Amino acid sequence: MGDLLAVAIDAVIYSSWLFVVATGLTIIYGVMRILNMAHGSLYALGAYAAASLAGAWSAAGWPAAGTYAVLVAAALLVGVVMGPLVERGILRFTYGRDEVVMVLVTYALFLILEDAIKLAWGVESYFVTEPYQLLGTLDLGPLSYPLYSGVIVLAAVATGVGLRWGIYGTSWGKLLIAVIHDREMAAAMGINVGRVFLVTFTLGTTLGALGGALTAPTVSVVPGMGVEVIVLAFAVIVIGGLGSMPGAALGAIIVGLVRSAAVHFLPQVELFSIYMVMALVLAFRPRGLFVAVEARKI
Amino acid sequence: MKIRPGSRLPTAALAALLVGAPAAAAAQAPAPPPAAEVKPFKLGVVTFLSGAAAGPFGVPARNGAEVLVEALNGGRVPAPYAKKGLGGRAIELVFIDEAGGTTKQVSEFRDLVQRQNVDAVIGYISSGDCLAVAPVAEELKKLTILFDCGTPRIFEDASYKYVFRTSAHAAMDNVAAALYVTEMKPKLKKVAGINQNYAWGQDSWNDFEATVKALKPDVQVTTSQMPKLGAGQYGAEVSALMAGSPEVIHSSFWGGDLDAFVLQAGPRGLLKKSTAVLTCGETATHKLAGQLPDGTVIGARGPHGVYAPENELNKWFRGVYQDRNGLFPNYPAYHMAQAILGLKSAYEKAQGTGDAAPTQDAVIASFEGIAFETPSGTIALKLGKGHQAVEETVYGVTKTVGGKLTFAGVKRYPADKVNPPEGVKSADWIKTAFKPAR
Q: Which residue from A minimizes the CA distance to B256?
């Protein structure tokens, strides 16, 4: 029973982290049909910005509790700078091209950003340990959990609820749905598709950077940290169905549960478990669990 | 990516011209007859300059190579290495980035040998790269010195003429770790492990587990976690380790994975409830000193870094490295120094008393079975038909004194006690060499 509780708690924490990391990737694909391979670099940029800003905050002797706000501010900063820069500077010239071309363009961007990060921060590791350690731990029998994991869970819930409200509860969300459904018709009806794309990409970039910023206190921020994340995020959104928000949530929960159970009961298959789930889902539902209904165009 | 320190030459050449030219003009002495120009010894150095292994391993190794070669070329290294360069011949370094995988490294190696015409290659931190490059070195007949990779398979599964390794292989690290914890905890009952799921992590855990079980047959393994290399998130693994309440947790984690594990396990109390044995821990002590609780067992893959002996060479090496880089050298920097000094020893032994450059075959003949001095003490190539080094190794536990990280309970294990004898595979040796302690 204790084991099952540990599996459940670890699964919730890991799923929440996966959702925060993957949701930016799926929203960009859902609206813009771009599989953003540079998502891992934006995640890494969020982590580096968080480590640098939180480090400066601590060095200035300001209250340690303020580092949580610094993490979010770092993600926002990366989002509002990099989102418009990439979308206006590169992506808008490639709209209308094949999805494979977009993958290649964003992969090139990923390589450029990885080297840019090395130019800016070097190859040394950076740490921002205060936010993780400040909240302390919660003891559950022999186990002890960091309360900072609760921050990740809250961030995931807030992201999910916020996006759901933003898409289905606001007039801007209705414009977004119209663009998702048929971008040509939406443009014909007077919707500024270019602006919707700009806002969406900036939002996706901010979410990717938020994933990195919230992860930074639990890891050492090092070159290459975004590579692993893009693979995991891709697995999650493929299981859920590319471009589907509920799919990303379900994909994160499934991957989190399977990985957590594997770690506790059968650690030798942990490496394989996530990809086994992905293969099984794709074998029966080749387009993922939540397939968005597409209107047939004639 | 190729970086040549020689790119700094224009500044140096300009300075030499500005200083040297007026002096020469003033002297008005007739120029001596031109001596036969001695070509520099072109040495390819392959180490991680990008990716996760660059910060803790690759860059310190590069820094070690730069500082040592610069001093060797200037004739500023203490005895027995006072002779300039390699037997009077200047050393020219050509750096190659080890990142990119084995296929890329094989191509880079061919390029170094066939297009850049290096005289020898020192390189490879990744065991995968070592295993891939060694047969190619043999095919191209180029002297190649593996400086840091740990897999015992290089010389246990094959035999090479042109390939040498000047640091001990990984069996030593894990055998000594098992000896240390069983001596530290004579009533040891439960152990666990967390290692990366590839050759390095699997071999490390297998050697540790086998040695512990040979010494303490009753020991129970509560869990052996094998997360993916670079996973970064170890929440569930930490829970699984805690649930079994092991007295000892073995880990050969390195780089960002080691940092992340310490950062995530520390605040949850795992590293206080159980004694962690970090075989590569030395590379993390420089930045994570405040995160490691007292009593954590730290290894440095040999007598390197904080465990290096207080000999003249070490005092000198530590000093010049710190002056140039602002940090003490960690063990990859020591491993690099071993490789360069091993090459120098073999080269000058082959050269004898003359000044003529020895042939590669003569250097190889001198290299086989050589013993030479390093900042880490004497290194001897006793295994792999004289191609594989053995060295003593050291373990100790962390102890914070006055806010500063120190090491207590330091034990040194002689090379013969923690390395298999010549001709015996590590796994077979572990099964028979250790008997249950009474």
A: A220
Q: Which residue of B has its CA nearest to A3?
A: B243
pLDDT at B31 over 70: no
Residue-range domains of chain B with CATH: 2-21+37-168+309-390 (3.40.50.2300), 171-300+392-433 (3.40.50.2300)
Partners of residue A118 in chain B, C-beta under 8 Å: 50
CB pair distance less than 8 Å for A268 and B232: no
Q: Is residue B299 within 8 Å of residue B279, measured between CB atoms?
A: yes
Which chain A residue's Cα is nearest to B239?
Answer: A143
Separation between Cα atoms, residue B153 and residue B169, nearest integer Å? 9
Strands B120-123 and B275-278: unpaired
Going by C-alpha positions, the residue among A103, A108, A119, A105 that lies closest to residue A48 is A119
Give the predicted TM-score (pTM) of the model: 0.87
User: Residue for token digits 């910060």?
Assistant: B55
Q: Would you state the pLDDT for residue B5?
A: 40
- Report the distance separating Cα A208 and Cα A210, nearest Å: 5
Q: Which residues of A touch B237 (CB under 8 A)?
A: 263, 267
Under 8 Å between Cβ of A245 and A164: yes
Please state the rounded mean pLDDT for residues B11-15: 40
Tens of pLDDT, residues B55-83:
889 999 999 999 999 999 999 999 899 99
Write out pLDDT tens, residues B315-363.
999 999 999 999 899 999 999 999 999 999 999 999 988 888 999 999 9
